[in-house]
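Structural prep section.
Before we set up the soaks we want a predicted structure of the protein with (2R,3R)-2,3,4-trihydroxybutanoic acid in place, mainly to decide which crystallisation condition to try first. Input record follows.
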Amino acid sequence: MKFDPKKTTARMGLISLALALAASTAAAQTQVTITHSSPEDSHFGEAAQAFKDVVESKMSGDFNVVIQRLDNEREAIESVQFGSQECSITSAGPLGNFIPETRVFDIPFLFDGYDHARGVLDSDIGQDMLGTFNNYGLIGVAWMENGFRNLTTGTKTVNSPEDLKGMKIRTMENEIHMRAWNAAGVLPTPMAFSELPPALQQGTVDGQENPVSVILANNLDQMQNHLYMTRHVYSPGILLCSLAFWDGLSDDQKAIFLEAGNAAKEADRKRVSEDEKAGVDKLRERGIEVVEIEDREPYREAMSGANASFDEEFGANLIKQIREWKPQ
Ligand code: EAX
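Run finished without errors. Recording the tokens verbatim:
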């Protein structure tokens, strides 16, 4: 290539202009991408918005939070751990594959209701657990919530846990859930959330299970005929950030990110509570048959074959402590 001083100067001019622009935006704003797995109008969508509002308003434009949908939650956690995206809100479904300790919260029939689950996550038990995330290249900013999960089916009906035997139920990629369904005689079929709608539409599984909020926001009722209010397991969510990103923040900035995480948690819980209240009627109106289950004991019993393995894995003491937790 021949040296052309004119062209070279022009090119260098462009390069320095680009560099100057990049430097000025970098100095002005750091982009923070946060993904989540549901549509904008959902518990996770509202949580992400609350996070963005606090970060952007409290740090006078230093950060620009970009909210994106990524419904393969395993991939989302991987990219946060790898540092290719800053933060994510996901259900705790695949979290245990990264941080095995967290799987204790996935045990079916562990919590009596929302106050119990939220109370435990807010207590030292839940907060200490967030502290373990650092060992895995992650920052657990705040527990989120997906809600109590309920079974839905397509053409098959369920009158008692006996009917579950041999059914193919899509589960999250979650060892604990799979073990419990197995104990009930189900053939658990784990897959990412992104793969669920086609699996329901093509009938490759007989059913799935998810909280009212998720069913509503993602129109899963339109792919299923029956909703059984089994409330068999509480599904926590988590707001994670990458350790590398976090380490680059000042202490003041970290405090604001934690405050934003808390705002996200509150927005999420508020929406889940609203969805639980109004959502079941809404789903009924939309056409799915909703079956209330007066006595959930037979379902607890059906899954109880897995309990000994949970005691062994997490320690019977910790499980007892969670079960017996009461507000101070
Ligand atoms: O976060 O995979 C699931 O069924 C989750 O509940 C869903 O991703 C919503």
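Observations: The pocket of (2R,3R)-2,3,4-trihydroxybutanoic acid is lined by residues 37-38, 73, 91, 93, 146, 172, 193, 210, 214, 235 (CB under 6 Å).
Flagged for discussion at group meeting.
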